[in-house]
Design goal:
Elements: H1 19-31, H2 40-52, H3 61-78, H4 80-89, H5 94-109, H6 116-128, H7 133-167
Helix pairs in contact: 1-2, 1-3, 1-4, 1-5, 2-5, 3-4, 5-6
Length: about 170
């Protein structure tokens, strides 16, 4: 997949996006960063991510469908790069930028594989959103740290149970 341009030359467009729509566009775009289309798993994870974010609490299932459809429509009208750059430019503050980054991170990692194209996409997105390396690491820990801790705790429990059975 060609390298995604961030803040590249934007056509003079009159389109302005509300932050929720911008985040949805970034989420959809991140799901195709590896050159594959938007898969069912990525689409599901994107919906789940949006459900869990502030600003989306009042959305009904129909609201999510409409948001997704509007995002796809803008991607088709503007083109992927233009819609993506527009989405980044429409995020009003750091909280929304970090929410967009978290969304992209979770959508990309949902299949358990982060190929080079997706890793490069995330690095470029991080730069475009002005998220420092330190903050990106903190975000990663916030998103995946608890999950890793739970897995490690479960491994330790299993190991202890096996050890107790062997001593009997």
């Amino acid at each position: 997949m060609p390298k995604r341009k961030f803040y590249g030359s934007r056509r003079n467009t009159q389109v302005t996006l509300e932050p929720e729509l911008a985040i949805a566009i970034i989420g959809i775009t991140s799901s195709i960063a590896d050159g594959d289309g938007l898969g069912h798993k990525e689409d599901y994870v994107l919906g789940e991510m949006l459900c869990s974010m502030a600003g989306f609490e009042e959305y009904s299932e129909q609201d999510y469908v409409e948001l997704h459809n509007r995002a796809v429509e803008i991607l088709q009208q503007e083109g992927i790069d233009e819609a993506f750059n527009l989405a980044i430019a429409c995020l009003p503050n750091q909280d929304y930028k970090e929410a967009a980054y978290v969304t992209a991170l979770v959508v990309i990692a949902c299949d358990g594989d982060v190929p080079d194209e997706e890793a490069e996409f995330l690095a470029n997105l991080q730069d475009a959103l002005n998220i420092s390396n330190k903050r990106a690491e903190e975000i990663f820990e916030e998103v995946y740290g608890e999950e890793e801790e739970e897995e490690e705790t479960e491994r330790q429990r299993k190991h202890k149970r096996r050890g107790k059975k062997g001593r009997r």
